[in-house]
Amino acid sequence: VQLVESGGGLVQAGGSLRLSCAASGSTFSINSMGWYRQAPGKGRELVAAIVPSLGTTNYRDSVKGRFTISRDNAKNTMYLQMNSLKPEDTAVYYCNAYAMDGNYWGQGTQVTVSS
After folding, report:
1. 10-residue block means of pLDDT along the chain (115 residues)?
2. What is d(CA 37, CA 8) in angstroms, rounded to the nearest whole number?
3. Do residues 96 and 35 lie in contact, with contact meaning Cβ atoms separated by under 8 Å?
4. If 0-12 CB within 10 Å is exposed, 13-18 middle and 19+ buried, where does residue 63 land?
5. Torsions phi, psi of 74, nearest 5?
6. CB under 8 Å to 64, separation ≥6 — which residues?
7. Tell me, what's the pLDDT at 107?
8. How far is Cα 54 from Cα 84, in angstroms, rounded to an integer?
9. CB–CB of 65/92 below 8 Å?
10. Cβ within 8 Å of residue 68, ≥6 positions away
11. Quick one: DSSP state of residue 38?
């Protein structure tokens, strides 16, 4: 499975961004997908996850009501719509796919929120 993220950038507090993660390869083997983030000097943390076959989702508390994870199964693409962004959302965001044959990561995309 190969994952390619896009959509990061610089935005002012209160603004919005949409991240995309295009999956290719053995996508049929994917059980769940998620977005993680890592801020400077901090560990990587789960932001949101989705089970594509069921459409079930979960979010970390700090992003509930502001972020929405979704997936277009026909395009093998996952999205993260981020609204009401805060400076503390600044991080490198990584796409993750948990598949039958392993755990896969994208290269990451930088999101910077200015105050």
Report:
1. 96 98 91 96 97 93 98 94 98 96 96 97
2. 12
3. yes
4. buried
5. -65, -30
6. none
7. 96
8. 27
9. no
10. 48, 79, 80, 81, 83
11. E
